[in-house]
Structures are given as C-alpha cells and as structure tokens.
C-alpha cells in the first residue's frame, strides 16, 4: 500500500477503509463473497488486520459473516440495513442540536448548502450523494472522536442502502424531499438547534422510504 511506511494509521483501519470504499463504490455488490485472503495479498498485509477489519465491517452492517466464516457483502435492501438511514438522521440531528450554538454561522452555511442537494435528488445516486455530504459536514462538527466515528460508519451504511435502491427515478419522492429539505435549509439559516434536529430527523425518515 503506497505510503504505508509513513502512515501511522493502524493496519486494521486501512484495511477497513479499503474494503468499505470498494463496497461504497460498487466494486462489490450485495451478496458478493469477500475473500479475506485475497484482500491480504492485494494489500500485502497479514491476515490479522484483515480479520479485525472484517469484524468491524460486520458490526457496521456492511458484510455478513456466517458461522463457517463465509463473508459476503450485506443485503442493503433488508429492513435492518434500511433502518440505518433514519438512524443516521437521528444521530446527525442530535449532534447538530449541540454543535449549532454560539457563533456557528459558517457551519450553518455549509450545512444549508448540502441540504439543498436533497431538493434536487431524484435518483439513488443523487440521494446517496446528498446524504453523504450532509452527514460528512455534520461529522466534522463533532468534537468527541468516538461519536464522530460512529456517525461516519452509520453514514457509510446509509450511503450503500440509498445507492442500492431499486428505483432509478421517482418524481413524487423528489417533490416529497424538496419541501422538507428547503424547510431545513431555511431553519439552518436562522432557526433554533432543536428545530434543526427535528427537521433533520424528519428528512432522513422520509429518505429511508426512498
């Protein structure tokens, strides 16, 4: 792995990032087998960090591991996986309730800009992109590292869920998303943190049904 000698990131984290990005980018499809030994060979690492990464991928919900240690990419259309979308909204809403205090004009402007992406989102890829950008912006406002990592992991699963949606275009959904998205954008400009929290939760609950 290029630059690994100078990279202080733990190997399990690097392996996790490699596999999760491959799943996110569609290099693996739901149900595809994940060959841990081949991953180790490709990345020139031992099996130990790969096993640790697979456990984390399983805990996040990106892969399923059978008792016989057969690992495959998760089914993102399952109710358990789809629940990650509204859960991400609840986490983000709670984070913003505490982050948008005092002088938070710059943060509000960034969030408002990403929120408007939802109003134009009319396909799985654009909805996934809007979700990721909004949640990434929110994650950057969280001071507690463990909480930030947790939201980032849930956001990753939510992205995969939205991207794997069977429908490619749904004009009715675009209309449904546009109204709450613009309401959230307006509230981010001048509303209270608690109002922002409520609207974020509502938007992602609707997004879960996409």
Low-pLDDT runs of 5+ residues are: 1-6
Strand content: under 5%
Give the biggest beta sheet: 2 strands, antiparallel
Separate helix tally: 9
Overall pLDDT confidence:
90
CATH superfamily of the largest domain: GntR ligand-binding domain-like
Which value, in Å, is the CA radius of gyration? Answer: 18 Å
Strand order of the largest sheet: 1-2
Tell me what the CATH architecture of the largest domain is: Up-down Bundle
CATH topology description of the largest domain? Four Helix Bundle (Hemerythrin (Met), subunit A)
Alpha-carbon distance between the two ends: 37 Å
User: What overall geometry do the principal axes of the alpha carbons give?
Assistant: globular
Write down the secondary-structure element order.
HHHEEHHHHHH
Number of domains: 2
Portion of residues within helices: 55-70%
Account of the protein in words:
- The structure is a single chain.
- With 210 residues, the chain is an all-alpha fold.
- The protein contains nine helices and two strands.
- It has a two-stranded antiparallel sheet with strand order 1-2.
- Helix 2 (36-43) crosses helix 3 (47-60) and helix 4 packs antiparallel against helix 9 (193-208).
- 35% of the residues are buried.
